[in-house]
Amino acid sequence: MTLIEPRVKHGDASDGTTPSGPLGREIVRTDGPLKVQGAATYALEHQLEGLLHCVIVQSTVGAGRIVAVDRSAAEASPGVRLVLDAGYSLMLRSQPDFFGNKPEGDDYTPFATDIHHNGEIVAAVVADTLEQAQAAAQRVRVEVEFGPVIATHDDPRAGHGNPVPLDKDWGDPDGALAEAPVVLKATYETPREYNVPIEPHGLIAHWEADDRLTIYEPSQWVDGMANHYATWFGLPFENVRVVSPFVGGGFGSKGQALPHSAVAAIAARMLRRPVKLAVSRPQTFTAYGGRPATRQRLKLGATEEGQLLAIDHDGSNETAANAAFIETLGIVTSMMYAVPNFRSRQRIVPVNTVTPGAFRAPGKNPSAFALECAMDELAVELGLDPVELRLRNEPDVDPETGKPWSSRRLREAYAAGADAFGWTQRNPVPRSMREGRQLIGWGMACGTHPVYSSPGEAMVRILADGSVEVLSSAIDMGTGTYTILAQTAADALGVPVEQVTTKLGDSRLPRAPVAGGSQLANLMTAAVHTTALAAREELIALGLTDPNSPLRDRANTLIIADGRIAPPSGEGISIAELMAAIGRDVLEVTRDTLPRKERSSAERLKFFTTLGGMERGTSIPKSRHSFCTHFVEVRVDEDFGTIRVSRVVSALDAGRLYNPKLADSQFKGGIVMGIGMALLEEGITDPRNGRILSANLADYRIPTNADIPHIETISVGIPDYDATLLGGKAVGELAIVGVAPAIANAVFHATGKRIRRLPITLESLM
Amino acid sequence: MMNFDYSRATSLEEAATLARHPGAMLLAGGTTLLDLAKCEVARPERVIDLTRLPGLNTITVGESGATIGALATMSRVADDHGIQRRYPAIAESLLLAASAQLRNMATIGGNLLQRTRCPYFRDPAGYPACNKRDPGTGCSAIGGITRDHAVLGTSDHCIAVYPGDLAVALSALGATIQTNLRAIEIEAFFLMPGATPERETVLERGEIITAIAVPATPLAANSTYLKVRDRQSYEFAAASAAVGLELDSDGVTIRDIRVALGGIATKPWRAIAVEDALRGRRLDEGTVREASRTAVDGAKSHGGNAYKIELAPCVVARAILKAGGIQ
After folding, report:
1. C or N: which end of chain A has fewer Cβ atoms within 10 Å?
2. pLDDT tens profile B191-238
3. Domain A294-452+619-765 is of which CATH architecture?
4. What is the CATH classification number for the domain harbouring B11?
């Protein structure tokens, strides 16, 4: 057969018009030149006088109790300054949880006495050089009383787990399933997946005084992290500074200070010297948790015509033996399709693993894997095209809350994606399409991500030469924050974007909440927009009222455009000329987007140091979500079972794109990660001792360039001012959602084999 | 990583003398040594740098055969037009191995000696038991996760797979390994683990690979290397096959064939039974697939690697068909 060549069609600024100002333009990232020249200083590259090196010692057993730690040989090693363990370390105060709630216990130590997972920190060594610390770390003798290890939820002893209060119910799912003409039941599983950013974790801790701590650490949330350290050491928030101007990726793993962070800060405090701690790549697999393994049982009931009658969802995820982590598996299931009868339950299954953590689109991603595979199975069962089945169940309002959508352009996404892919050419029969020895499969699936929002704060400074600075503690982990905030300020102020510089990633700057939940771009553009408009007003006011202003006593009709302040007709003067005339070096304005209400400074701070201020939709009159659909072609070798993704077309509704070029990078990055999830990535765990066997980048397989085909993305979004102030929706985490099921569905179409457990490797298709 | 002494050898004789000291290890490209030192598997007391030795990196391709200096990098050999034309399996095996960055550093001599990727071998802290690393301690892989372990040539002491690609191609092409002391046929160069898995080759202490010699044959000129794995690049073979094929003048009768397998055995694995079953036979898909089944005669699964026993004959068959122009 003839394969359809992909048509080149680029996503544009998404409001259908050429943007009038800098916002919405495809500007290259402003931090790019620094990065390609190696001039962007990452956390561990900071040079400090008298720096010592710290290496952590991790448990090599999966469970048990530490009987004794013998530090003597390590202490006697060359260059060693300090050996720490649970018995010899500063005791810290317990950290509050993400919502600011104080925990039960009062004390915290990062060093284990009871072992809950293989790789838990049991000791640490500080020495003059990294090599000395590494050598001494091997001489720490740990005597352990072994305990029984439940390595994964596949171990029958792990049981069914503990229910968590995420029940969702409406209608009568049992009754509807009993009556439904067509019922589909299936169980879907995803493995442990790890955030493996190119920049591994680590930090430099520097006590500048007994009560002043500076931390250089890659961070998705410098204010939240500063609060963690402040709480640990009983310091005022202002006395901790977290510096993170550049972050080499995080994918959710750099949102909080971790046990090794505490180790470095303790060592630096005890030695009164700056201490660097670099987590090695193998150590990262247990220094923090990635996405937990998940298991979801789905029952779908439908009419013969494909009208969904009921969804019954039961999900569980692995969690740590000593901590609860919930991967919210029902989150997509409950809002994607119109269904009159619904039930979702969730459990967490304690096993001997590091506490799992947030990994790109937590909950949403595995949730969509199960639902979107099940919808494909249902389409096959009904003999319906999978796009048509979805169209027949497209909900007019959010089925869970009954609220209207702020915008939901999934119909447009189906149309644009299917058209660009050539979907109508698809022969629905499995194994019907081939080229030589390659079976060809076409599959599709949808994804979605909620729009979360939190307040932000920003400072805008107009300088004497007319240039502008934007300052915020918000971070840029390669996503483009520097660039879009410069665009936003330029847009609101009326200056060329080249005149704006952005300073980020320092907790001394105006506050920002976590760069997570795909919220940062929307909330920070809102904060900068608000602040820049205020600065603009102030500048115009000065122009009209300052005794030395050449524009003094004009009618209040001054406009600023292209860096010039002018009456509606007439030349006007440049901002620099105005600043000179009125004798100002700088005009500085700080604003925030907190809900207008009197607050104490402690209450204000809580908005930026906890998740308490994150609006997930409950008090918003509309249901706010981004949407996408992926169309995928795979080629499966009929002898080897090897799968190659040969084509991807994704149509995405993420509202207005503040910089389509950078948004496109986020979309493509998500799709690449989704390909890894579908076919390659897996934290392989030894069932005997819970040790991660694939704890390196050769064995933990992420896609190489050779695994990635041409990816075409189409933006079908329009500005959604019910979702956010400037009309954008969630971008960063959207596009990974739905890729894995699209690939699994394409594999079924190619081979006739339905694989319900990821990753889909060659042996499952042989 | 422990501290070690470093010396740069100025002559082969000096290198051999230095290398005879216990605790001494040879350094060429360093891509294996540095990696293993970082994970505390290699703990050299002294590193002898061979990279400045003169005359060991030349590639000569002549009428009777090719000689590849042990210090030639993987990328240089893969890019050599003579090698590409007369020994395509060698060039292909190199290009499908490692990554571009590693190929630019790693040498041909070192490539033959690369150690297994068995995760138990590479993790002394987590797995004190490994006969290959610490003789007599046991095997942690047996009873563990074995997806990437060998199904052929294993013993009760070790089931680690030989990871390389080049040596598989060289086995199919009948290469000879030249050292400072002698010439060793590649078939005799690699050892099965048996009760001494720590000994992987016949090289003696102080013996240094100087070159690889490959005979020029019609079979070598019509050779190919097929590597199957989940990831398209930078992954070791789930199974691979090198095939050299010579047809009679009729274009369909197999005059001679040599086959070797990778990714499934404890050493590069000659499939002599496949060769014998096909020599003199007609090249057609049914015959080839039938004969290829014998490639895994005697194979033993350890659970997770059972798929290799099914996969390997398919890889052999497809490699033979590819060499025979049947795509």
Report:
1. N
2. 999 999 999 999 999 999 999 999 999 999 999 999 999 999 999 999
3. 2-Layer Sandwich (3.30)
4. 3.30.43.10
Give residues with Cβ within 8 angstroms of A310, minimum separation 6.
Answer: A171, A173, A176, A177, A180, A299, A300, A301, A339, A340, A341, A342
Class of domain A43-148+202-278: alpha beta
Contact A694 B327 (CB under 8 A): no
Structural domain boundaries, residue B306: 218-323
- CATH 3.90.1170.50 residue ranges of chain A are 43-148+202-278
Contacts of A495 (CB under 8 A, 6+ apart): A466, A468, A489, A560, A562, A563, A575
CA-CA distance, A592 to A526, in Å (whole number)?
Answer: 9
B233 touching A, CB under 8 A? yes
What pLDDT is stored for residue A150 in this prediction? 98
Mean pLDDT, rounded, for A398-410: 97
Q: Would B294 be classed as within a structural domain?
A: yes
Select from B147, B151, B232, B309 the residue whose CB has the most chain A CBs within 10 Å, as the one to mutate to test that interface: B232
Give the model's confidence band at A17: pLDDT under 50 very low, under 70 low, under 90 confident, else very high.
low
**A454-608: what fold?**
Aldehyde Oxidoreductase; domain 4 (3.30.365)
Which of these, A625, A623, A622, A599, lies nearest to A612 by C-alpha position? A599
Provide the pLDDT for residue A14. Answer: 40
For the question of residue A538 being annotated catalytic, the response is no
CATH code for position B290? 3.30.390.50
A148 in reach of chain B (CB within 8 A): no
A642 to B230: CB separation less than 8 angstroms, yes or no: yes
Out of B13, B33, B49, pick the residue that ends a domain: B49
Query: Is A190 an interface residue toward B (CB < 8 Å)?
Result: no
β B46-49/B5-8 pair status: parallel
ipTM value: 0.97
The shortest C-alpha distance from A640 to chain B (Å) reads 6
pLDDT above 50 (res A134)? yes
For residue range B64-74, list pLDDT tens digits in order: 999 999 999 99
Quick check: is B187 in a domain?
Answer: no
Residue A646 touches chain B, beta carbons under 8 Å: no
User: Per-residue pLDDT tens for B298-310?
Assistant: 999 999 999 999 9
Is residue A446 helix, strand or coil? strand
Helix residue ranges per DSSP H, A356-480: 364-382, 386-392, 410-421
Are B145 and A436 in contact (CB < 8 Å)?
A: no
CATH 3.30.365.10 spans which residues of chain A? Answer: 294-452+619-765, 454-608
Of these residues, A208, A412, A733, A763, which one is catalytic? A733
